[in-house]
From TrEMBL:
Keyword match Metal-binding: no
Domain of life, source organism: Bacteria
SMART domains: HTH_MERR
Cited PANTHER family: HTH MERR-TYPE DOMAIN-CONTAINING PROTEIN (PTHR30204:SF93), REDOX-CYCLING DRUG-SENSING TRANSCRIPTIONAL ACTIVATOR SOXR (PTHR30204)
Species for this entry: Saccharopolyspora kobensis
UniProt protein name: Transcriptional regulator, MerR family
InterPro entries with a match to the protein in the record: DNA-bd_dom_put_sf, MerR-type_HTH_dom, MerR_fam
PROSITE patterns recorded: HTH_MERR_1, HTH_MERR_2
Keyword Cell membrane: no
Alphabetic keyword roster: DNA-binding
């Protein structure tokens, strides 16, 4: 099938399909006319890619995991490469969450301190009073 039909059947834009191919996630044969020609398995492959992207995985992660993927959802077989890749991604997510929690905590502390200092130096703000410029 050509890229337009694959796009229609999967709901994924043609430019995204070309990107998946460039990332090594999707393969196409080339006809004598230069057009991409995908086999039936490409439909399942694209659906796998979309599900894995929706899970927050990068295309680099997905390239690593796809050999262990079965079915559209996909179900991932517990091969060692897959588990190592998923654990690595989980560690990165945990690190990001830790950084965000620290940033949030620091911001809350700054707000609290600013409110304390502001209460000492400024009259209470009445939002019903017009602000003069």
């Amino acid at each position: 099938m050509r890229i337009g039909e694959l796009s229609r059947r999967t709901g994924v834009n043609a430019h995204q399909l070309r990107y998946y191919e460039a990332q090594g996630l999707l393969e196409a044969d080339r006809g004598a006319n230069g057009y991409r020609d995908y086999d039936e398995s490409a439909v399942v492959r694209v659906k796998q890619i979309r599900h894995l992207l929706d899970a927050g995985l990068s295309t680099e992660d997905i390239a690593f995991l796809l050999p262990c993927a079965v079915g559209e959802t996909p179900e991932l077989l517990g091969c060692p490469e897959l588990l190592a890749g998923m654990r690595s991604r989980l560690r990165r997510i945990d690190d990001q969450m830790d950084r965000l929690a620290r940033s949030r905590s620091a911001l809350v502390d700054y707000i609290d301190a600013a409110e304390r200092v502001g209460a000492e130096h400024y009259p209470p703000f009445d939002s019903s009073e017009p602000v003069s410029a």
